[in-house]
Write a structure and sequence with these properties.
This is ABC transporter ATP-binding protein. Its main location: membrane. It is a single chain. With 323 residues, the protein is α/β, with parallel strands linked by helices. It folds into two domains: 215 residues, Rossmann fold; 77 residues, 2-Layer Sandwich (Alpha-Beta Plaits), CATH 3.30.70. The protein has eleven helices and 13 strands. The strands form three sheets. The protein has a six-stranded mixed beta sheet, with helices on both faces. Strands 11-12-10-13 form a four-stranded antiparallel beta sheet, covered by helices on one side. Helix 9 runs antiparallel to helix 10. The structure holds adenosine-5'-triphosphate. Adenosine-5'-triphosphate (ATP) binds next to helix 1.
Length: 323
Amino acid sequence: MPSSPALPGAAVVVRGLVKRYGDRAVVDGLSLEAAPGQVTAVLGPNGAGKTTTIECCEGLRAPDEGTVHVLGLDPRTDAAALRPRVGVMLQDGGLPTGVRAVEMLRHVAAMYARPRDVAELVERLGLASFARTTVRRLSGGQRQRLALAAAVVGRPEVVFLDEPSAGMDPQSRLAVWELVHELRADGVAIVLTTHLMDEAEQLADVVHVVDHGSVIASGTVPDLLASSGTPDGETSVRFEAPAGLPLDGLSSALGAAGAGTGPRWTVAEPRPGSYVVTGPADPAAVAALTAWLADRDALVSSLTVGRRTLEDVFLDLTGRHLR
Ligand SMILES: Nc1ncnc2c1ncn2[C@@H]1O[C@H](COP(=O)(O)OP(=O)(O)OP(=O)(O)O)[C@@H](O)[C@H]1O
């Protein structure tokens, strides 16, 4: 991506970041910025380099090339100055395992000058039921919630959340999302990684789509959906069926169902047997699709109709699914 001027007042600025393991660059010239009062999502498939990027921002890894600044400081050489100003939630929790959950949180809170109210955090993140359980005995989702509480208890100006709702039940996810919304309203710069499209769509002001260690698209969710050439009102129909169906015929069948308004459909088979049809889906078009499949004796194993999502954008950009 071309380098562009920093956002005025950007809280995080990453420029041309390269991180190699052996001779493999797992982060390969990645640039992004994150502003106060915004949620910046780094979205990409497993292994895209999201965690490595965040760990460079947290000062846990040293870049091989490029620069990283958090609140204008270098996360490695200015670690002590940044510690009280930055909250970090690691993917594996990164918590001491021998202490009881809420004791740990109180201990972390005591390290800050103006911590949040621990009891309030315990309540809103649903930590009370395992408050006296030692960290090593918590479930993955419980650990995640505790790690989030620990990341925000010091009222940081910047928060890094690596896959914040991974392994959580739906109720806990909602609690996490609400807390993220509140942090944003308080002016915190939030950088989160996720491979969950709905999480990015729900939370992100800006999404950076990352693949093979670099940013391949950036923007608000509506910008990204628009940039992939999706007029308002278009819908995607996804279905699984035998691989290698003759898709040209399908486009014309759907065009014919659209009351003579011409072919407005794009049809693709991004993975063998997995199809995505994009256009102005209405009941007639869906009926035409299933009739076309029945004519070819093609049994559909799943079919969903819905508006286009970031998953479709990723598919457009890479020809692959996010997961
Ligand atoms: N310490 C390490 N040594 C060698 N390779 C590593 C190391 N850490 C990460 N990698 C590799 O770097 C690549 C990027 O990993 P990273 O964890 O940054 O990806 P990610 O986008 O966060 O993926 P996920 O969604 O699975 O967490 C992966 O192929 C991973 O195996």
